[in-house]
Amino acid sequence: MNTGLITRYTGALYSAPEHCRPRYDEFRDMFSEGQLKSKLWLIQELGKHTDFSNKSIAIAGSWFATLAFLLLEDKKNTNLKISCIDIDSRCNEFVRFLMKENELETINRVTADMHDYSYSENVVINTSCEHLQDINKWLELVPQQSLVALQTNDFFSHPSHVSCVKSLTDFQAIINPQLSETLYAGELNLGIYTRYMILGRKR
Question: Does pTM surpass 0.90?
Answer without folding.
Answer: yes
